[in-house]
Amino acid sequence: MSTVSTPDAQQDRGGFLARVMAATPGDNRLNMCIQCGSCGGSCPSGPEMEHTPRRLFALIRAGESETVLRSNTPWFCVSCYYCTVRCPQNIHITDVMYTLKSMAIRAGLYRDPSPAGFSETFVDYVEKYGRSFELGLATRFNLRHHPLSLAGMAPLGLGMLKRGRMELTPHRIDGMDQLGAILDKAKELEAAA
Predict the structure, then answer these.
(1) Please, where in the chain does CATH 1.10.1060.10 lie?
(2) Which string of DSSP letters, residue by residue, matches 36-54?
(3) What is the reported pTM?
(4) For residue range 127-139, what is the model confidence (pLDDT) as tens digits?
(5) Which of 3, 26, 138, 153 is the most exposed place for a label (fewest CB within 10 A)?
(6) Which residues, 6 or more positions from 53, have their beta carbon under 8 angstroms from its beta carbon?
(7) What SS3 state is found at 177?
(8) Which parts of the chain sit beneath pLDDT 50?
(9) Are residues 97 and 44 in contact, defined by beta-carbon separation less than 8 angstroms?
(10) In CATH, what is the architecture of 7-107?
(11) How many CA atoms lie within 13 A of 77 on its CB side?
């Protein structure tokens, strides 16, 4: 899917790259991409992606914001950091993928609401407890987005409970006040961006 190249889109070619870079924390170096393909070749989710990370970065440079933000590519990023570690330009690719997810949510340009719902549920547990709560995450997410899948997940859940790999109740981490301060600062920075 490609967007129509309007005069506004042509003027924005460098603007979208600048916005993505500004919204990504740290020195993400996205403008240093040499289109080598190491990222896509390293990605375990690559075959499921509409565009390889390399192609996505070319689309960002071309100002194709709608194509990029509608793409499933950021949503299939599993945050393994293989791409980031193998990038010869030290581009923080995984961080850029998080930025693109956030931008897609704000723009309402994602097709399947379940990845955004999963992300929101995960963040909610981290804000409340300082960590993920797997049973709550899976239950809440699937009740909202895939209620019929819950019955099929029961054997897996029971096996994890038996082996002590999943808790029945969430546990709050020590130092929640410090984590809260960090998360509040992150929200403040995001609002300012």
Answers:
(1) 7-107
(2) --HHHHH-TTGGG-SS-HH
(3) 0.65
(4) 999 988 888 888 8
(5) 26
(6) 39, 40, 43, 73, 83, 93, 97
(7) helix
(8) 1-11
(9) no
(10) Orthogonal Bundle (1.10)
(11) 26
